[in-house]
Design brief:
By secondary structure, this protein is of the alpha/beta class. Helices cover 45% and strands 13% of the residues. The chain contains seven helices and five strands. The chain has a three-stranded parallel β-sheet, sandwiched between helices. A two-stranded parallel sheet has the order 1-2. Helix 4 packs across helix 6.
Length: 152
């Protein structure tokens, strides 16, 4: 993600939220790529809502992710996502409608998708919110009730 951000040509501020054993190496990599001044590593946060509220793009093209709720949180805030094809959430994302699915090892793919989101991401907000609503507590409770009623 850092390498792609450095090459995407967009005017950005990258905010990295969360805990990771390699955080110091990420900071060093951002400096080496010449984007250290444009990256903020804020660590774990009790309240992530303010970060989603200022985000134009949510990017987590990880090499492994079962189904992180962070994708749904971003979508619920109307923020399109850049998700790894290896992540469980990739099954939900329709390219160009909710964000994009990328190969996490393909920096050029990530660059291209960041550029597309930089230009068309805001137009996806309504579709992002609508998708997330399918997974709200109420929607999931209604589906579980249907399943249990069918078993009775």
């Amino acid at each position: 993600t850092l390498a792609a951000a450095a090459r995407c040509g967009l005017d950005f501020e990258l905010i990295v939220v969360g805990k990771d054993k390699q955080l110091d190496s990420f900071r060093s990599a951002a400096q080496a790529l010449g984007i250290g001044q444009r990256c903020r590593f804020v660590g774990p946060q009790a309240d992530v809502l303010p970060y989603y509220a200022v985000a134009d793009i949510f990017a987590l093209p990880s090499f492994f992710e079962t189904f992180g709720l962070v994708y749904l949180e971003a979508l619920a805030m109307g923020v399109p996502v850049l998700v790894s094809k290896a992540a469980g959430a990739a099954e939900l994302i329709e390219d160009g409608r909710h964000g994009y699915r990328v190969d996490p090892g393909d920096v050029e793919d990530i660059v291209a998708r960041l550029q597309q989101l930089g230009h068309s991401g805001p137009a996806m907000a309504g579709d992002c919110i609508a998708l997330a609503q399918h997974f709200s507590r109420e929607a999931m409770a209604a589906r579980l009730t249907e399943v249990l009623a069918g078993l009775a």
